[in-house]
């Protein structure tokens, strides 16, 4: 998994790890039972006798009914808890970004303290050549997603989170960035047409001073 650059990414990583541990533990039990059955309950050579057949065993039936219910309940609890955290919009954002996805690129309009900066992209073969979204570190960012044509999906792998951009649907989310300056790849994660693979962009995390300078220069140029 890519190293997360938001507080929310750490929650996603924890849920992912827990799900894999549970899946592997279940796999070990299932594989073990299969191998045990193959080794000790197979038909013997030169024998017409069938292995013992087990039917209507109430304890076993209760076991394979109750145990999956417990597992599903535990996974549901942690998934619902983390989903509520990831979709929480109760806090006031420091920066708001209007994300407009279109065939086949992005328009980012960043708003902070009454100032705006807008970047419009074109299809690119490399995420470094796509439109660049500049954001400050250690700040809460809100993304408002919209599309004028078809369904897209806003995905920054380093966020470890993505959300569909659906025409007519008001999708939005917030993240709290970490102190991790750098340039991170972004892309559309929903097949949206012939140039879907070129719908690339990048997110640049900078210090607050660099971000203020960027907003001032962009606002002055508009």
Automatic annotation (TrEMBL):
Gene Ontology molecular functions: copper ion binding; cytochrome-c oxidase activity; oxidoreductase activity
One Pfam short name: COX2
Transmembrane parts of this sequence: 20-41, 62-80
Ranges for domain Cytochrome oxidase subunit II copper A binding: 92-217
Cofactor list: Cu cation; heme
Catalytic reaction annotation: 4 Fe(II)-[cytochrome c] + O2 + 8 H(+)(in) = 4 Fe(III)-[cytochrome c] + 2 H2O + 4 H(+)(out)
Domain of life of the native organism: Bacteria
Protein localization: Cell membrane
Top-level EC class as recorded in UniProt: translocase
Purpose of the protein: Subunits I and II form the functional core of the enzyme complex. Electrons originating in cytochrome c are transferred via heme a and Cu(A) to the binuclear center formed by heme a3 and Cu(B).
Protein name per the record: cytochrome-c oxidase
Organism, scientific name: Planobispora siamensis
Gene that this sequence comes from: ctaC
């Amino acid at each position: 998994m890519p190293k997360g650059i938001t507080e929310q990414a750490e929650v996603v990583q924890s849920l992912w790890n827990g799900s894999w541990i549970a899946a592997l533990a279940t796999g070990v039990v299932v594989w073990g039972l299969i191998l045990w059955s193959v080794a000790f309950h197979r038909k013997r050579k030169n024998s017409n006798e069938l292995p013992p057949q087990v039917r209507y065993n109430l304890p076993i039936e209760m076991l394979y009914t109750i145990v999956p219910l417990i597992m599903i309940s535990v996974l549901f609890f942690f998934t619902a808890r983390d989903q509520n955290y990831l979709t929480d919009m109760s806090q006031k954002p420091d920066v708001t970004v209007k994300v407009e996805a279109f065939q086949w690129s992005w328009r980012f309009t960043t708003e902070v303290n009454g100032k705006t900066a807008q970047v419009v992209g074109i299809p690119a073969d490399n995420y470094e050549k796509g439109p660049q979204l500049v954001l400050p570190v250690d700040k809460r960012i809100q993304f408002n997603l919209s599309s004028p044509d078809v369904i897209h999906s806003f995905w920054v792998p380093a966020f470890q989170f993505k959300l569909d951009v659906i025409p007519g649907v008001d999708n939005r989310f917030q993240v709290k960035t970490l102190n991790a300056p750098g340039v991170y790849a972004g892309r559309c994660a929903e097949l949206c047409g012939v140039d879907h693979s070129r719908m690339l962009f990048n997110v640049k995390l900078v210090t607050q001073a660099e971000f203020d300078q960027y907003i001032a220069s962009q606002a002055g140029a508009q």
